[in-house]
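4.2 Preliminary Data

To establish feasibility before requesting continued support, the project team ran the inverse folding procedure on a target of 331 residues. The structure was first converted into the token representation described in Section 3, and no sequence information of any kind was made available to the design step. The complete token record follows.
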């Protein structure tokens, strides 16, 4: 019997913190979901990659790697690339995803959180993705024999639809609360060395019902995408962090927005974001290697950011319970 999702998610944090990793399931075959279509899964230790063929519901012009991430026990944390439909929706983008693997059914299931008011032809209306090994199809959906005449009346009222299997049930189960502060701390400390592993910790926080708008976790996701040179994704998370955060969290999101805009050579927008960060009370956290590196990049631009950098470096961040920001080991 597989451990409950909540136990796995919490244990994953402990394992990463201690430097120990569980060996994930070995998936090396074709998996499929009704609307989603086939996907070729290949795992190497805890790491998993998924490649979808050309065509399909998203009309891919060529075969494309659309799933990447790592297992922590039977819990997969990573990203999936899907198409979207809707007036204000991005046609295709990557989404953080947490899926649960059920060994008995050889099925991988979880909910994909799309942009608000968007749909995807690759997902059902409830956005539940359940990928099953193709050679398991017959076992998972046994044929139903035609009822005998005397049984037809008893079956006038159809039975409720099947639940979708243990993987779907496990994926739909609410996670018990994780230690948010410890998970954020671990994610922030991993950013400089391993942005993907860091984003997995922020996903654990955002997966909690009460923490789905945690500004520090959203900023962490934005920084993780920025460090991987995925600027549109970074800006989306940072914009959300600015809209829901306040105080130091909002200031931190503005600072990293400035970094993304500077890298994109949008100097005016970078100056405005940095000005907003300082107006919100931002100051450079002591000993934060990522922030120091970004400040040096601002300095390399010459006099463009000179006044703002002087203002920032003239401050000392008050030590307390506020997070020390992305890249710090001390939230």
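Position-by-position output of the design step:
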């Amino acid at each position: 019997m597989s451990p409950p999702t909540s136990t796995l998610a919490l244990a994953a944090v402990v394992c990463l913190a201690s430097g120990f990793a569980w060996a994930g399931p070995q998936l090396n075959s074709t998996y499929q979901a009704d609307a989603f279509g086939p996907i070729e899964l290949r795992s190497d230790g805890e790491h998993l990659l998924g490649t979808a063929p050309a065509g399909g519901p998203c009309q891919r012009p060529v075969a494309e790697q659309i799933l990447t991430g790592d297992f922590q026990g039977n819990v997969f944390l990573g990203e999936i690339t899907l198409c979207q439909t809707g007036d204000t929706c991005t046609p295709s983008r990557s989404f953080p995803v947490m899926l649960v693997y059920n060994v008995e059914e050889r099925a991988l299931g979880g909910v994909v959180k799309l942009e608000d008011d968007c749909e995807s032809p690759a997902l059902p209306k409830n956005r539940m993705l359940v990928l099953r090994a193709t050679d398991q199809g017959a076992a998972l959906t046994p044929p139903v024999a035609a009822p005998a005449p005397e049984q037809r009346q008893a079956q006038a009222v159809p039975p409720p639809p099947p639940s979708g299997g243990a993987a779907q049930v496990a994926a739909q189960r609410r996670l018990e609360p994780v230690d948010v502060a410890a998970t954020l701390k671990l994610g922030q400390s991993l950013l400089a060395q391993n942005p993907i592993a860091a984003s997995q910790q922020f996903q654990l926080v955002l997966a909690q019902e009460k923490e789905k708008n945690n500004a520090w976790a959203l900023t962490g996701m934005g920084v993780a995408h920025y460090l991987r040179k995925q600027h549109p994704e970074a800006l989306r998370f940072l914009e959300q962090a600015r809209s829901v955060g306040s105080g130091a969290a909002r200031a931190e999101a503005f600072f990293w927005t400035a970094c993304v805009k500077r890298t994109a050579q949008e100097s005016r927008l970078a100056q405005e974001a940095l000005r907003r960060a300082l107006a919100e009370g931002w100051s450079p956290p002591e000993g934060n290697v990522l922030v120091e590196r970004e400040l040096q990049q601002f300095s390399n631009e010459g006099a463009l950011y000179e006044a703002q950098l002087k203002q920032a470096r003239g401050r000392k961040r008050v030590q307390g319970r506020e997070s020390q920001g992305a890249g710090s080991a001390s939230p």
